[in-house]
Design a protein that fits this description.
By secondary structure, this protein is of the alpha/beta class. 41% of the residues lie in helices and 26% in strands. The strands form 4 sheets. A 5-stranded mixed beta sheet has the order 4-3-5-15-6, covered by helices on one side. Strands 11-8-12-7-13 form a 5-stranded mixed beta sheet. Strands 10-9-14 form a 3-stranded antiparallel beta sheet, with no helix packed on it. Strand 3, helix 5 and strand 4 form a beta-alpha-beta unit. Helix 1 (4-14) crosses helix 2, helix 1 (4-14) packs across helix 3 (28-42) and helix 5 crosses helix 9 (277-290). The two termini are 43 Å apart.
């Protein structure tokens, strides 16, 4: 049975019973019962319920802050015991982008899991940038230009981006010879790289932004790679998303000599006074393995 205090922390973090139930792999009714039992045991109301969200009462805010601190200290004690035994154990929650997680991270984490069988790993794949603190995420792998300064972000490696199109599209529309030629073409835009409808390049005069009017836009790079393979236009995508299509000839690179502003692969984690041995081990492992 899930501890009442863990349920309370999950409800506050998820800002609702249904979301907390999903997080804890149980039902909203079970979550509600555990919260009710906790409040009855303490003799005080911790949460105010509304139709959409739950809100902490003043007593709930005090309890939540103290409980977080105590749970953190408990985890530190358990981590210290784990370190002393020389065996890494406990839970790790990891977040990563969908396509990168499927193509790269899954294999890497499988090797880490084999090396540390006592660590329980949860991998959440989402293309949005998770709130590490509120979602209880220990480590995130992110592909970005800039990152939230409140987090510790360690760069792993640059990720080049390529301008690609299908051979059929190039045969029909011709290959662009300059950056501004791209404005004459159908553009497929990857909104994860930039929410703004623009592509960035490095030139002798510094970084140049090209405003585009995309004919197709998606937050999933695999979808855009497939659209490009079908001859629907030019796209700029991270190298790991198109390497197979480039090898098979389904896509070809254009403007190869153009210097496109690269992305950076980061491993990110919250700033904490005490970093557990298992988080340290995972961070060091990811930096070593993904750097390849």
């Amino acid at each position: 049975m899930i501890d009442e205090r863990e349920v309370f922390l999950a409800v506050v973090s998820a800002q609702g019973f249904t979301a907390a139930a999903h997080k804890l792999n149980t039902t909203p009714a079970a979550v509600s019962r555990r919260i009710k039992a906790l409040e009855e045991r303490l003799g005080i109301r911790l949460l105010q319920r509304t139709t959409r969200k739950v809100h902490l009462t003043s007593a709930g805010e005090s309890y939540y802050g103290n409980l977080q601190r105590l749970m953190h200290e408990l985890h530190c004690v358990e981590d210290a015991l784990s370190e002393a035994s020389g065996k890494l154990s406990g839970a790790l929650k990891i977040a990563a982008p969908v396509s990168f997680g499927q193509r790269r991270l899954s294999r890497t984490l499988a090797q880490f899991a084999r090396a540390h069988p006592a660590i329980a790993i949860t991998l959440d794949l989402e293309d949005k940038q998770n709130d590490l603190i509120n979602e209880g995420i220990d480590v995130a792998v992110r592909i970005s230009h800039l990152l939230d300064s409140s987090l510790i972000a360690r760069p792993i490696a640059p990720i080049p981006k390529y301008i690609c199109a299908s051979p059929a599209y190039i045969e029909q529309m011709g290959a662009p010879r300059t950056i501004t030629d791209l404005l004459k073409h159908r553009c497929l835009h990857y909104s994860v790289i930039s929410e703004r409808e623009e592509w960035k390049f490095k030139t002798s005069k510094g970084e140049q932004s090209l405003s585009i009017k995309p004919d197709y836009c998606s937050n999933n790079g695999d979808v855009l790679a497939e659209m490009a393979c079908e001859g629907l236009g030019l796209t700029i995508l991270p190298s790991f998303l198109v390497e197979d299509q480039l090898s098979s000839g389904k896509l070809v690179r254009v403007l190869k000599s153009t210097d496109i502003t690269p992305l950076t692969l980061f491993v990110v984690y919250p700033s904490r006074r005490h970093l557990s041995a298992r988080i340290k081990a995972l961070v060091d492992y990811l930096i070593d393995e993904l750097n390849e």
